[in-house]
Amino acid sequence: MDTLQSLVSEAHKTGDYQPVIDLIPYARVIGVKCERFGEEMIFRLPRNPENIGNPTIPAIHGGVIASFMELTAAFELTLQLEQPALAKIIDFSVDYMRAGLDRDTFAMCKIERQGRRVGNCSITAWQDRKSHPIASARGHFLLDTLSSFR
Amino acid sequence: MNAHILAKCQRFIESLAHMRKLKMRVIRADEKSITVVLPVQEQLINHAFDTYMHGGVLTTLVDTASSLSTIPALKEYELCPTLDLRIDHMSTPVLSQPLYAYAECYRVTRNVLFTRATVYQENPEKPVAYAISTFMRPGEGNTDPAFKAVIDGDNVEEVN
């Protein structure tokens, strides 16, 4: 079994982040993808009929959108750390602006502050255009969890 | 325990593709609160890394439980979208135990519903997470009638 560290450095080299994402079972279940554009990482949640939580519109389950944003932040932190560790969630708060329709959803995370132990992130999720977000979120993550992944 | 509310909640959860995927079930329901379980399941476990692996799914569980708690709070079924949701994580859940979410809708106004939820495993006294949330009311008559009929159980054949 590869260590997280070697998985992350391999991902940075090849630009294929899927092996890191697949470490988290729920990210695999909902189908999270990741693409890097220069230094920017954009996470993608492809349209998936199994992610529907409101059959009348139909719209993606609110929990799936929040989880996708939470995972986006966790991965962003994990991939930015010098010593990669899976960031562990402390708190998370999401505001919903629009229904997430049954189509591809995108998310980006901005690390507002990264200390030695805690990372503070804000995340935006959108579908048709970034300036038209479906949800925004913020969260704190614990970063010194490396020991548990050795 | 209220069998009528429980049945209504069960129909809601069974009508959602993502809830079926996660095998979520309502195990208790009364006039004030509901409890949902997320069973231990292979698709949510990574055997190579034996640690924080519920990543994200707890959020879906909380959102579902909070949303379900609006059902007993309203006379008529209304499909209420989430406005916001905040979760504080107290400790790391273990993989070998199911996750339970207890949720109650403690305030109903004409336009907004306020809920709170607790997530626990073996011991309800030692929660792994707390959450508060608000939901928007579409208003009576603004929920898709076919879906409302399914949840209310007016059209039982459609559910099965």
Automatic annotation (TrEMBL), chain B:
Pfam family example for this protein?
A: 4HBT
Which keywords are on file for this protein? Answer: Hydrolase
Highest taxon of source: Bacteria
Q: Name one GO molecular function term.
A: 1,4-dihydroxy-2-naphthoyl-CoA thioesterase activity
List residues of the Thioesterase domain: 52-126
Q: Which SUPFAM superfamilies match?
A: Thioesterase/thiol ester dehydrase-isomerase
Asked if the record carries the keyword Transmembrane, the reply is no
This protein's GO cellular component annotations are:
cytosol
* Keyword Hydrolase among record annotations: yes
PANTHER family found in the cross-reference section: 1,4-DIHYDROXY-2-NAPHTHOYL-COA THIOESTERASE 1, BLR7284 PROTEIN
NCBIfam families, sorted: unchar_dom_1
- The name of this protein is PaaI family thioesterase
Organism, as annotated: Neptunomonas concharum
